Amino acid sequence: MLLRTGANVEATKKRGQTALIVACSCGFDKVATILIKNGANIEAADSHGHTALGGACGYGFDEIATILIKNSANTSLMKAANEGHNKALKVLLEHGADVDTRDGGGNTALHDASHGDHFEALRFLLEHGAEFDVRDEDGNTALVFAASCLNVEGAEILIAAGADRKAVDLSDLSEFGKKVDSTREDREKRQIIVEILQGITNTAAPE
Fold first, then answer.
1. Could you tell me which residues the ANK repeats occupy (predicted)?
2. Position with higher pLDDT, 174 vs 162
3. pLDDT one-digit tens code per residue, 38-77
């Protein structure tokens, strides 16, 4: 209830304990899960350096420790995708990370990988079952991100994998192009993306 009314999920007690640290140290697994889903920082430490995981392990709450480890892996998965670290993606998925985990804004690792030139990360996530048409809280798919960032190859990879071209509003893409100081290269990329989305340019399936 407090979170719904805007309570700060990272508010601390006198010793710097967050609600998540307290919940995990007391064995409140449902509370801990709710806090994590609402963006609680798993790595936060109190003034003595104690973390939520330390509290859970110290008091023998194995189930909570498992929840924290998995969610920590999920958070790291998002970071690895955003930076295009393929080896890290592989390790994290092998250790239980959810390929479709979401951040506070509803973005998945695939959304993060589609921002930049992380083509191998995109392919890797898709090969491991990432849902390509998942929408964030603003209704954007990974393809929308790729198109908005003029990521031509990323858009091609996503469409070849089956992403819905209609998820991208071409009028928005054109209006965005008019508002920014585009270089000739940007204008060419935007035109290529428009043609891809309209089906004028063929896309090959990801290798």
1. 15-47, 72-104, 105-137, 138-170
2. 162
3. 888 888 899 988 899 889 988 999 899 888 988 888 888 8
Q: Give mean pLDDT, residues 105-128.
A: 92
Residues 6+ apart with CB under 8 A from 182: 190
Domains assigned to the chain: 1-60 (1.25.40.20), 72-197 (1.25.40.20)
Cα 136 to the chain's mean position, in Å?
A: 9
Q: What is the mean pLDDT of the chain?
A: 86
- How confident is the model over 116-127, as a mean pLDDT? 92
DSSP letters of 118-166?
-HHHHHHHHHTT--TT---TTS--HHHHHHHTT-HHHHHHHHHHT--GG
The candidate with the shortest Cα–Cα distance to 50, out of 17, 9, 10, is 17
Determine the Cα–Cα distance for residues 111 and 196; give it in Å rounded to an integer.
19
